[in-house]
């Protein structure tokens, strides 16, 4: 039996980031805006433009920052966003929702999966790191195949994937046919150890501050401290690709 190669996914927020990821060894990108807020749903135009780069893009669908317990209006909006980003060219969607008791909101997740597959029967659906806020990430992972998910992105409930590697190994065992992708604070130096626990993919933001993008003017919101925004770092993408190639050799 041949084992599929471990995929490299890069989180990007722009067409330029998608091109950097494509040209330096990524297999796909997760597309969002507001990476500094944990990522939010990208616009239709952004999805369309990244689709034109040719690299498969999985669009994050998250309508606001903060926790993952959503009210009815938010769930209705995100269900529509799922359809919109897929019709705009996304290869898949990245979704998540929890109940107040920190179990997966399976009703909401079924809605998202059904909405995705109503647009494309082959649409890939990833559960995002809401699973890391669940009371029991391993038990949550065990339910994903029945819900129709393609994969899950997780740090094993830890601040970083490297710190949560032992739990990620348990998630791999529990998830069955659902792919497990390790993400959160991943650096190229972490790749070999994460691959060793059986993940199907590694996920990096591979970001650096954009030169000259900081400002010292009037704040644009409560969380605006004038810091620079982030762009995709080609060298980090290349280093992660090299690390995966070494493991595969």
From TrEMBL:
<dbReference type="GO" id="GO:0005507">
    <property type="term" value="F:copper ion binding"/>
</dbReference>
<dbReference type="InterPro" id="IPR036822">
    <property type="entry name" value="CutC-like_dom_sf"/>
</dbReference>
<dbReference type="InterPro" id="IPR005627">
    <property type="entry name" value="CutC-like"/>
</dbReference>
<protein>
    <recommendedName>
        <fullName>PF03932 family protein CutC</fullName>
    </recommendedName>
</protein>
<comment type="similarity">
    <text>Belongs to the CutC family.</text>
</comment>
<dbReference type="GO" id="GO:0005737">
    <property type="term" value="C:cytoplasm"/>
</dbReference>
<dbReference type="Pfam" id="PF03932">
    <property type="entry name" value="CutC"/>
</dbReference>
<keyword id="KW-0963">Cytoplasm</keyword>
